[in-house]
Design a protein that fits this description.
The complex is a heterodimer.
Chain A lengths: L6 H17 L19 E2 L9 E2 L9 E6 L4 H15 L4 E6 L4 H8 L5 E5 L3 H5 L7 E5 L5 E6 L4 H18 L9
Parallel strand pairs in A: 3-4, 4-5
Antiparallel strand pairs in A: 1-2, 3-6, 6-7
Chain B lengths: L1 H29 L2 H5 L1 H24 L6 H6 L6 H6 L5 H22 L5 H25 L23 H30 L4 H32 L10 H26 L3 H24 L12 H25 L14 H33 L7 H21 L10 H7 L1 H17 L6 H24 L6 H10 L2 H26 L1 E7 L4 E4 L2 E12 L3 E10 L9 E5 L4 E5 L1 E4 L3 E10 L5 E9 L2 H18 L2 H5 L3 H9 L1 H4 L2
Antiparallel strand pairs in B: 1-9, 2-3, 3-4, 4-5, 5-6, 7-8, 8-9
Classes of the chains: A alpha/beta, B alpha+beta.
């Protein structure tokens, strides 16, 4: 009996077992590893023309806040921008991380600056630590500096009404929320 | 009534499949001629029943019979007729029916064209086809019946996923399935050979054309899918290394290897057990592809609704078919008589290298596709494996493959003259180096990778031409003699040259379009212009248009020096509710201009994505040429008359015989 001839069968057996296990996993559930975790350690200088930079400690305000990752080159960011302006005028605390962008300052001067503080993440390193894989992304950070929610893609009025505002209200009332499942 | 008829035909087909599988194989084992003789009529009957069943479902779609759940879920009375018909296979149940039908058609083909096969071999082949058929029919009847009634019947259907309402995608699944299922022929022949314990060149002569048929369809199917992704998904990309794409690419790689190793079996009676293994693996990868798309085990943008119950069935089926055949292989393969010997530097040697590289490529794609699953199963960690992995794997594997591809056809069987072949390919080598240097200069002495691609494409294309020139003694004998040589060259050889040249075109397209593409993303107001590559595009505004079953926002971009503007659309379908992008593409062999219109910013501007992609069309042009090569090779006289190899050799000596 030639053992080598059994090799393909053995490889297939491993694959079949993995497929069998895979059938009972839920592939749609892509958790954000950072939900519930403290925000990563970072310290960014301000975007050009602004006074305040952004660092980990700045987010521990005692109140839930929004952290928005944006760039002037990103078209969906321009789409969500008016909504952020509107939220900021309504008193929502929003912090900005300006990812891989050297024109962020002029852009904010021109279109309006909704951010309380901004961080210039020129090399994208802080964004990576935040688990950002596309711009724009928006996070809700609790008063004690933990990531409570993550929204991928541009914020739309509907997202604000059904997700962001209820979650912020929950966090203010009881310190935790189930309004925003992963994604 | 049509539903019941179709359902009944399916049940009968299952019964016939049982007969088709059990009795002929048993008869061949016991030497019972009446059971052996049962195989062809059973295969024909099977084909007729599935044709009936498929016609019933098609009729239900065409007449919008909303008393059938499948029609309700995937069709809509307002849909154009062509998409009503393509809706038949644009869903899980219907596509399975198409799968089974194609399988039965191939089974019937053995019955009709297999008159020159030994009856016992033919009975076994048809029996194995029947066995695969049983699995698919049971699967359909138990978990995925396309003929279930909807009671009460709703007034209208829910519509086909709008992203699938496209002519390219209407044709994509049938092509792909003809490819996938076509490999069942090679598989059935492999199993039959293992059952018989014997593989002779006659076996390979049968397997090769059928593999070639399947390969042509699969190549067309993969290319069509990629072209569809290019113009429909609106990102300008044409290959995403998505699990579903990989599912069709793996059988293509393995099938390409099989195509080449079968040549060695046919001509040199060597590599027999490897070829058998490849035949099993190619079809297994086709089945795995089906499994990946349907079970939900790996998720992807364009998979069918996933359902674990179905997954369990397919997995069980996969274990029986693949596990069973690999067990049979493990027991029987060592008993196969090894064939002729050859030196490493020979045509056979080059084909073995081709096989090793293609098989490694297929295995790497499999690993990359399943790795997230392995990791998730073992550690619960979620990862995705993307283009960086596949590119890192593919470039080092394809480089020696293409390099060897240029030399392989110049080598003689058994013992080749490698330095001699290199000598004759000097010209191709010089061209390749020149192309690379020119590319390097044009690219501003940038990264070296595009250089490699350019060099390889030029090397392959030029060596195909050099080989042809040598074969025809072009410019060395009078043109009339060369013409005579061209006429006498077997079509299979022409097919090889054409297909290899197609490969060169594809590599050229990939390299040039990836290296020199430019893209431009911005908000544009009417009247604004932007340069994309060498082209100036002016945005002329956007309007709302009403389509047959959607409303669209249509943008208009004027291209400087062109009369027709580019008019990309964002379509909003009402049933089901969904948005799709329709890129506008101005295609020429030199470059594509590609425009996508996005959301309005509410202040009169629109998000616009514009691309300039030089020579991107060559990617698919190359695939078309490859398929053409396959078809030319299929038309070879040898396949039509089943003439033994010996006569071909004689034809080469006495020119008169070649003209017959």
């Amino acid at each position: 009996m030639n053992l080598r001839a059994f090799l393909p069968l053995a490889v297939f057996a491993v694959i079949a077992v993995a497929l069998g296990v895979g059938l009972f996993l839920n592939p749609r559930n892509i958790p954000s590893a950072l939900i519930g975790k403290p925000v990563p350690e970072f310290n960014l200088r301000p975007v050009a023309g602004r006074a305040n930079g952004l660092a980990t400690a700045d987010l521990k305000t005692g109140e839930p806040v929004l952290v928005n990752v944006f760039a002037s080159w990103c078209v969906p960011c321009r789409i969500e921008h008016p909504l952020l302006m509107q939220l900021a005028r309504g008193g929502m605390p929003i912090f900005g991380i300006n990812q891989r962008d050297d024109k962020g300052g002029p852009w904010l001067d021109e279109t309006g600056d909704p951010y309380k503080r901004t961080g210039d993440d020129r090399n994208g390193r802080a964004s990576i630590d935040w688990g950002v894989y596309g711009v724009p992304e928006t996070f809700i950070v609790t008063g004690d500096g933990r990531i409570a929610c993550k929204h991928i893609g541009p914020l739309m009025p509907n997202d604000v009404e059904t997700k962001i505002k209820p979650a912020m209200a929950d966090l203010k009332a009881k310190g935790s929320t189930d309004k925003c499942s992963a994604g | 009534m049509t539903a019941e008829l179709g359902h009944y035909a399916l049940v009968l087909a299952l019964v016939v499949a049982l007969v088709q599988c059990v009795l002929p194989i048993w008869g061949a084992h016991r030497g019972n001629p009446s059971f052996i003789a049962l195989a062809p009529p059973a295969a024909l009957m099977q084909c007729a029943l599935l044709l009936l069943s498929f016609s019933c479902l098609t009729a239900a779609y065409v007449t919008s019979d909303f008393s059938i759940i499948n029609v309700v879920q995937n069709s809509h009375s307002a849909k154009p007729l062509i998409y009503k018909i393509s809706g038949v296979w644009g869903n899980h149940e219907g596509s399975l029916l198409l799968w089974s039908l194609i399988l039965a058609v191939f089974g019937a083909a053995v019955a009709v064209f297999g008159g020159n096969l030994p009856p016992a071999l033919r009975a076994r082949v048809i029996g194995v086809q029947g066995f695969v058929g049983i699995g698919f029919l049971l699967f359909m009847l138990l978990t995925s019946n396309p003929f279930l009634r909807a009671i009460p019947a709703p007034p209208d259907g829910m519509g086909l996923n709008p992203i699938l309402q496209d002519i390219g995608l209407a044709l994509h699944p049938p092509m792909l399935y003809l490819g996938y299922v076509g490999f069942s022929m090679a598989f059935s022949f492999a199993i039959a050979a293992l059952l018989e314990g014997r593989v002779d060149p006659a076996w390979a002569r049968w397997v090769r054309p059928w593999t070639l048929v399947a390969w042509c369809f699969l190549t067309a199917g993969v290319a069509l899918g990629s072209y569809w992704a290019y113009y429909e998904l609106g990102w300008g990309g044409w290959w995403f290394w998505d699990p579903v794409e990989n599912a069709s690419f793996m059988p293509w790689l393995a099938g390409t290897a099989l195509l080449h190793s079968a040549i060695v079996v046919e001509k040199r009676d060597a590599l027999k057990s490897w070829t058998i293994l490849l035949a099993i693996l190619t079809f297994s990868l086709s089945l795995l592809g089906t499994f990946i798309v349907r079970s939900g085990v790996l998720n992807s943008v364009h998979s069918f609704a996933s359902d674990p119950a179905r997954g369990v069935f397919i997995l069980a089926f996969l274990v029986v078919v693949v596990g069973g055949s690999l067990t049979l292989f493990a027991i029987r393969a060592p008993t196969l008589k090894p064939g002729g010997l050859f030196s490493a530097m020979s045509r056979e040697g080059a084909l073995v290298l081709n096989n090793l590289l293609l098989a490694t490529a297929a295995a790497s794609v499999l690993l990359g596709t399943l790795y997230p699953l392995f990791l998730d199963a073992i550690t619960g960690q979620k990862v995705s494996v993307g283009p960086p992995y596949f590119n890192a794997i593919f470039i080092p594997l394809m480089t020696p493959l293409i390099a060897a591809l240029g030399i392989g056809p110049m080598l003689a069987w058994k013992r080749g003259d490698v330095p001699g072949a290199f000598g004759r390919l000097k010209f191709a080598f010089i061209l390749a180096v020149l192309a690379a240097l020119v590319g390097w200069y044009v690219n501003g002495f940038g990264p070296l990778l595009p250089l490699l691609g350019l060099g390889l494409a030029m090397w392959l294309g030029a060596s195909v031409l050099v080989e042809l020139g040598e074969r025809l003694k072009l410019f060395r004998v009078p043109f009339g003699d060369s013409w005579g040589r061209a006429r006498r060259t077997p079509r299979a050889t022409w097919g090889m040259s054409i297909a290899h040249f197609g490969m060169a075109l594809t590599i050229m397209g990939i390299t040039v379009s990836e290296t020199w593409k430019t893209e431009s993303l911005q908000v544009m107001r009417p009247g604004e212009s932007v340069m994309v590559g060498p082209e100036r595009l002016t945005f002329q505004g956007a309007t709302m248009v009403q389509g047959p079953n959607y409303v669209a926002q249509r943008g208009s971009f004027a291209v400087a020096g062109n009369t027709t503007p580019l008019e990309p659309e964002t379509r909003r379908f009402s049933s089901p509710q969904m948005d799709t992008t329709e890129a506008a593409i101005h295609s020429t062999p030199l470059a594509d201009i590609y425009a996508v219109i996005g959301e309005a910013d509410g202040k009169g501007g629109f998000a616009a994505r514009l691309y300039w992609k030089p020579m991107v069309l060559w990617i698919w042009l190359g695939a078309v040429v490859m398929v053409l090569g396959g078809i030319v090779s299929l038309s070879d006289r040898r396949h039509r008359v089943g003439a033994p190899v010996r006569r071909e050799k004689k034809a080469a000596v006495t020119p008169a015989a070649g003209k017959a």
